[in-house]
């Protein structure tokens, strides 16, 4: 199965956290309110701060598991969610 990809932009409402939820929602086809809280997988505030807290992110990418998906957040604004068995 192809990964679902979304993007976020610095200085916009589309934060890394928003993009993660969007990617997992798209990949799973589930209602975002029915997904487990993102805070069970990663600290949402820390995730946003890591990628948007500086003028330029020094983090190339971060990968973690959330709701049965491997989620990769990249410093260039790309977020991918793919099922864990696809890896």
Automatic annotation (TrEMBL):
Pfam families referenced in this protein's UniProt entry, alphabetically:
HalOD1
Which InterPro entries does the UniProt record give?
HalOD1 (IPR040624)
The Halobacterial output domain covers which part of the protein?
A: 13-80
Descriptive protein name:
Halobacterial output domain-containing protein
Say which species the protein is native to. Answer: Natronoglomus mannanivorans
The organism's taxonomic lineage, starting at the top: Archaea, Methanobacteriati, Methanobacteriota, Stenosarchaea group, Halobacteria
């Amino acid at each position: 199965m192809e990964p679902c990809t979304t993007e976020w932009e610095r200085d916009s409402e589309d934060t890394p956290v928003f993009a993660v939820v969007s990617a997992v929602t798209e990949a799973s086809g589930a209602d975002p309110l029915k997904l487990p809280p993102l805070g069970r997988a990663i600290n949402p505030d820390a995730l946003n701060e890591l990628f948007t807290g500086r003028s330029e992110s020094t983090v190339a990418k971060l990968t973690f598991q959330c709701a049965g998906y491997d989620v990769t957040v990249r410093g260039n604004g790309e977020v991918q969610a793919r099922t864990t068995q696809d890896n």
